[in-house]
Design brief:
mainly beta, 46 strands, single chain, five-stranded mixed beta sheet, globular, about 800 residues, 22-stranded antiparallel barrel
Length: about 800
């Protein structure tokens, strides 16, 4: 017994002696450009080139390494997208603790006041999002944000510009953390690709975010320019397809003293073509569709930041957007069976009208004396007005030479007002604990007037008025702590939601009012300095949009009319996600799996048009709610620099979603359509490969491949799609000018082909201007030393302040 006691005593003395003769290295890692903390940066302590110890920084960029022998060491700090830091540390009897504060410089650095963007894009996994830092390889993809989105893992953009994340188009798009009244498909086409700094994929957002968007949030962060003096940049490009399309933008910034003035203007215009056919097999019927869109859009933004003092900043901006588009759709339906009672149909239609959106934003930020302790106020108002005048000329011709013309006009006028007011508070209670809280009021008012002239129909929507108003009041709180390798964050958002729909001034009403809780949870475990595991949970909602609820014509062909359903209910989603991140010496690897449970799913429905259906083949395309279903999937991305002159970025993603809905099935014997409920599992697979080859400091080439696998859907079965792009980039004038060229879809293989048995057996194919050549130029001018302006900034879970495009 005495021997055991002496042994334990000896071990205790040795441990105490070791602790007394050991040192500690601690510190904080931040971004040089904005002093923001860098989470999960790798800190390594080396002796004679060998790693002695190391950790990852926590959510606040802090780190501590204990029990180091009293020696001379080399410290290395690395993080993807930033330059490596190497320094020396001396620990001895007189200095047993070393404190290191390092500001890492991005690969997108400032040279003489001009942004120098890194050659290659990087992907990093943060606690609640995947961040893609946009390099020159992505900006060469095309003129606009829409052009580069298909290069981003887990993101897809269809031929109409509609965005989807992980195979689901219920995704919310933010610009610098803020929503916009502009349709995302139109918005992405108006943002120059050279204005984008980062793209955040937030697939499982925390309670701090508004819960809309079943598949998550895509937040596009634009470059901010707050250099002292006068600075600016110009970008322009031409896309050569069937006709030339043009885009250009000019960004200006002037900072002096406490005032920062900024503004920009942009323009996109050109004609876009899309054509295809649908062939019916139970009858010899072919429907040919030709679409031509002539689009012209302008936008400008002006704003000011005022630095009251070191702790208070006031910001204001207004953004104005105006577009005037013309769409021409020719539909030719040929019945080739020789039946004299069957008439061929030829319809020409024209859609035209302006759309204007004005946004006004006022923000105030207060920074307390304690580091990381902040308070933000923000007010935002947006007003959108649109007018669409549609002209239809339908000619029916039978083999017996009888013909009939039907000419009419549809006029739709819409107005949408969005007002938001929010407050956000962040308080680091201590080094390991952070409390965040906030509240928001969001009020939306919409109105739509529909008028049909030129002919009388029996349907009830000849002259209609539809209003759709929502009031949302919410408050959230999140609480996070860190324990060595383990950290967690818990959050909850309480929300009061009220909607009121009114058709024809009270003839038909729909109201809904409820209070909902949206919880979220994040767990992170650092296996070691280069391997991290993450587990997260959140509850989300996908509320019906105006277009999904509006019982007015969205689009129309001789056989199909699209209408909304004002009685749609929101669909709720519970999502669980697990991610793994491995940091490599020359890159990184990320992988994740997820599963979702969805209640009251909003799905497409197709049913016979009982009001206007002389031919017996006319159908209505609309929406309805269905029961619970599930979805799951996985994704993986890899970023690796093989050599100084060659790097690759492959990625894959797979999703499987259960869907159900009613489709119409045509009976050729009775000549009538019956409703059939279908329950299917939709699977989608995508693969991408981005490869960059650097010849010298000025010249580089890129190669991009994309594959989208076949997918069986509720209504149609989509065939596979694939393409290869090639590009080149040249830098001159001391890195101030870049010239890029890209040959998209080199082999002209991108086509949307499909087949279906509903409502009758048919197949089709649509093609658009996928094979194009893009020529772009960017030029940066002005210059001075960078001086950061502290104001409302939401790159980490919060919205961004002014100085960008939106």
């Amino acid at each position: 017994m005495k021997l055991k006691f002496l042994l334990f005593a000896l071990l205790g003395v040795m441990a105490t002696a070791q602790a007394q003769n050991s040192g500690t290295v601690s510190g904080k890692i931040t971004e040089k450009s904005n002093n923001a903390p860098i989470s999960y940066a790798t800190v390594s302590i080396k002796e004679n080139g060998k790693v002695v110890s190391g950790v990852n920084t926590d959510d606040n960029g802090d780190f501590t390494i204990k029990n180091l022998a009293l020696k001379n060491y080399t410290i290395e700090i690395q993080y993807i997208g930033f330059r490596k830091y190497i320094g020396s540390i001396l620990l001895n009897e007189n200095k047993k603790e070393a404190i290191v504060k390092v500001a890492l410089e991005e690969e997108a650095t400032q040279l003489k006041g001009v942004n120098i963007v890194s050659e290659r894009s990087t992907i990093e996994q943060k606690i609640d999002r995947k961040v893609v830092t946009v390099g020159k390889d992505l900006t060469t993809a095309g003129a606009s944000a829409s052009d580069i989105m298909n290069n981003i893992p887990s993101v897809n953009v269809d031929q109409d510009g509609k965005l989807s994340l992980r195979g689901n188009d219920n995704v919310r798009v933010l610009i610098d953390g803020r929503p916009s009244n502009i349709d995302p498909a139109q918005l992405l086409k108006q943002i120059p690709s050279t204005s984008i700094k980062k793209i955040e994929l937030i697939t499982n957002p925390s309670a701090k975010y508004n819960p809309e968007g079943m598949s998550g949030i895509i937040n596009i962060i634009l470059h901010k320019n707050t250099n002292v003096g006068f600075n600016g940049s110009y970008s322009g490009g031409i896309t050569f397809g069937e006709t030339a399309k043009y885009n250009q933008s000019l960004d200006l910034n002037y900072k002096t003293g406490k005032v920062n003035l900024f503004g920009n203007v942009g323009q996109n215009f050109g004609t876009y073509f899309n054509d295809g056919f649908i062939k019916r097999f139970d009858q010899d019927v072919v429907q040919n569709i030709d679409v031509k869109n002539d689009n012209d859009s302008y936008l400008y933004k002006i704003g000011m930041d005022y630095l009251i003092d070191d702790h208070n900043t006031l910001s204001f901006y207004t953004n104005q957007n105006k577009s005037n588009g013309k769409g021409f759709v020719n539909t030719d339906i040929d019945y080739n069976n020789g039946d004299p009672d069957i008439k061929n149909i030829y319809q020409t239609s024209k859609y035209s009208g302006p759309e204007k959106t004005g946004t006004y934003n006022l923000a105030y930020k207060h920074i307390f004396k304690k580091e990381g302790h902040t308070l933000d106020f923000e007010g935002n108002y947006s007003d959108s007005k649109e007018s669409q005048n549609a002209y239809f000329d339908t000619k029916t011709t039978a083999p017996n030479n009888t013909a009939k013309n039907l000419i009419y006009n549809d006029l739709i006028k819409g107005d949408r007002k969005l007002s938001t007011l929010n407050i956000d508070y962040v308080n680091p209670l201590n080094e390991k604990t952070t409390l965040e809280a906030g509240a928001e009021a969001r009020i939306t008012r919409t109105g739509n007037d529909y008028t049909r002239t030129g002919v009388t129909f029996s349907d009830q929507n000849v002259n209609s008025n539809y209003t759709y108003d929502t009031d949302i009041y919410s408050a959230y709180v999140t609480f996070g702590q860190k324990y060595k390798k383990f950290s967690y964050q818990l959050g909850a958002r309480f929300e009061s939601y009220k909607v009121a729909a009114n058709l024809n001034r009270g003839q038909q009403k729909f109201d809904d009012d409820y209070i909902t809780l949206y919880p979220s949870a994040y767990l992170t475990y650092n296996l070691n300095e280069k391997n991290t595991l993450q587990l997260s949970y959140s509850r989300r909602v996908d509320r019906p949009s105006l277009e999904q609820t509006k019982p007015l014509r969205e689009f129309s062909t001789p056989l199909v009319t699209s209408l909304g359903n004002p009685e749609l209910r929101p669909q709720f989603t519970n999502s669980v996600e697990a991610n793994y991140t491995k940091t490599l010496e020359k890159g990184s690897f990320t992988a994740g799996v997820y599963v979702r449970s969805i209640n009251d799913q909003i799905s497409r429905v197709l049913y016979p048009d009982d009001v206007d259906n002389d031919s017996g083949n006319k159908v209505i395309l609309s929406y309805d709610n269905f029961d619970r279903n599930t979805a799951y999937g996985f994704e993986a991305s890899f970023n690796y620099k093989i050599a100084k002159w060659w790097d690759i970025s492959p990625s894959i993603d797979f999703s499987s979603i259960k869907q159900q809905g009613y489709v119409s099935l045509f009976d050729p014997v009775t000549k009538e359509s019956d409703q059939v409920e279908r329950k299917i599992t939709v699977s989608a697979f995508n693969a991408r490969m981005n490869s960059n080859f650097k010849v010298n400091k000025r010249l580089s080439f890129l190669l991009f491949g994309f594959y989208k696998g076949p997918s069986d859907g509720l209504q149609n079965n989509s065939h596979e799609m694939y393409k290869i792009d090639m590009g080149s980039r040249y830098t001159l004038l001391n890195n101030k000018m870049n010239i890029s060229v890209r040959f998209n879809d080199v082999f002209n293989t991108m086509k949307y082909a499909f087949d279906s048995q509903y409502p009758y057996p048919h197949a089709g194919q649509f093609t658009w201007e996928s094979q194009t050549v893009y020529l772009g130029l960017t030029y940066n001018f002005g210059g001075a030393k960078i001086k950061n302006l502290q104001r409302k900034q939401r790159e980490d879970n919060t919205s961004q302040g002014g100085g960008g495009m939106f």
